[in-house]
Amino acid sequence: MKFSLCIGAYPGKDVIYHLEKIKEHAFHGLEYYAWWELGDLKTISKHQERIGVGMNATCTPFISLVDESQRDAYLTGIQETIHACKILGIRSVISQTGNVLDGVSRDQQRATMIDTLKRCAPLFEEAGIILEIEPLNGLIDHKGHFLQRSDESVDVIDQVDSPNVKLVFDVYHQQITEGNVTRNATGYIDRINHYHIADNPGRKEPGTGELNYIHILRAIKRTGFSGFIGLECGYTIDTDEAIVQFKQEILSQI
Q1: Smaller CB count within 10 Å for the chain: N or C?
Q2: Which are the contacts of 252, defined by CB distance < 8 A and separation ≥ 6?
Q3: 16 to each of 39, 50, 245, how far by Cα in Å?
Q4: 62 pLDDT more than 90
Q5: Which residues fall within 8 angstroms of residue 36, CB to CB, at 6 or more apart?
Q6: What is the pLDDT of residues 215-248, one digit of tens each?
Q7: What is the reported pLDDT for 29?
């Protein structure tokens, strides 16, 4: 398993600072969501080569997957994102799904999502990049988000039927939405491309809440998973101290 930090882990610090810190902590990648805010992508790519650590995931510009009228704009954003990923060496693109539309049946919105993803799939297959769909909790952080449960998300992925359209499983979101985290995080392993972790409640670093991350990460490790696990969390103490504590108290036990 490989571990990544997410932009914002060091508040107010830029992408280069984050990459250098990731190298310092012997982690493996950075998730930088808004690639379009990076400026000169070729310059960033050179910094990644110099530091020896790069970005492992980004997002596509947020446009609803369930709104058919936004499909062309979504596909344009996908094409632009793939181009950016090729420059930066990024292999995963995260997509949210958008909020439920009033006056449109859930089945119709779901069918629109599946059709749009089917149109995206060949672009990602050709590029050798994974498009990741992310279910988010609607109770605390993302009220009205269309995809919230892992089982429905997996069903959508199965209907798209592409090796390059998968799931990012966010343990924090799924604990709030459905619980049963270890079983779902491992049971859907063949559809999961990478994980996000944070504790609950509070969305702070693992070890500060109710989730037993030694147990969860051991279970994921037993599946043979070799992809990224991203610390998408805030920190209750200094970030460097929190990362050292995470490695000593959790990673050393798995």
Answers
A1: C
A2: none
A3: 13, 10, 23
A4: no
A5: 61, 80, 84
A6: 999 999 999 999 999 999 999 999 999 999 999 9
A7: 98
Domain ranges in the chain? 2-253
pLDDT digits (tens, 9 = 90+) for 158-195: 999 999 999 999 999 999 999 999 999 999 999 999 99
Contact of 84 with 58, CB cutoff 8 Å = yes
Tokens of 111: 């069918």
Spatial contact of 97 and 133, defined as CB atoms under 8 Å apart = yes
Please report how the helices 41-51 and 15-24 are oriented relative to each other, as an axis angle in degrees rounded to 10.
20
The helix/strand/coil state of 1 is: coil
Residue ranges of alpha helices (H) inside the chain are: 15-24, 41-51, 71-88, 106-127, 150-160, 171-177, 181-187, 213-222, 239-249
The CATH architecture of the domain made up of 2-253 is Alpha-Beta Barrel (3.20)
